[in-house]
Write a structure and sequence with these properties.
Blueprint: E1 2-7, E2 10-13, E3 18-26, E4 31-39, E5 46-52, E6 57-59, E7 67-72, E8 77-82, E9 91-99, E10 104-106, E11 110-115
Parallel strand pairs: 2-11
Antiparallel strand pairs: 1-3, 3-8, 4-5, 4-9, 5-6, 7-8, 9-10, 9-11
C-alpha cells in the first residue's frame, strides 16, 4: 500500500506562484511514476505532469513552461512548482502514484484558486 498526502494549495492572484507537495509513505520503493492531475468544477480530471523513476518528465500543453515537477527521494516527496498562474488553473490538484504492478494510488487533493 502507498499513502499520498498533498499540501500547498491556496488562493493566489493571477501571475503568482504556488508549490504543491505530495508526500508518499508505505511501499514507496514500488512506485515508478508519480504525477499530478487536476479537476475543475464540472470538468473531468485531467493530466498535469508526471515524473518517472528514470527521471523523465511529461507535461500537459497548458502548463508547459509554467509548471515544473520534481522530487526529493530522501523525503519521499514530489513537488509541483506552479508559476505564472492563471484563473483557468483553478482546480483541485491530486497526486497520483503508480506501482510497477500497475496499482494506482491517489491523494485526497488540494485546492488551488487563482483570482483574476
Amino acid at each position: 500500500q502507498v499513502q499520498l498526502v498533498e499540501s500547498g494549495g491556496g488562493l493566489v492572484q493571477a501571475g503568482g506562484s504556488l508549490r504543491l507537495s505530495c508526500v508518499a509513505s508505505g511501499r514507496t520503493f514500488s512506485i515508478y511514476n508519480t504525477g499530478w492531475f487536476r479537476q475543475a468544477p464540472g470538468s473531468e480530471r485531467e493530466f498535469v505532469a508526471d515524473l518517472r523513476s528514470s527521471g523523465n518528465t511529461a507535461y500537459a500543453d497548458p502548463v508547459k513552461g509554467r509548471f515544473t515537477i520534481s522530487r526529493d527521494n530522501a523525503k519521499s516527496t514530489v513537488y509541483l512548482q506552479m508559476n505564472n498562474l492563471k484563473p483557468e488553473d483553478t482546480a483541485v490538484y491530486y497526486c497520483r502514484a503508480v506501482e510497477y504492478g500497475a496499482t494506482v494510488y491517489w491523494g485526497q487533493g488540494t485546492q488551488v484558486t487563482v483570482s483574476s
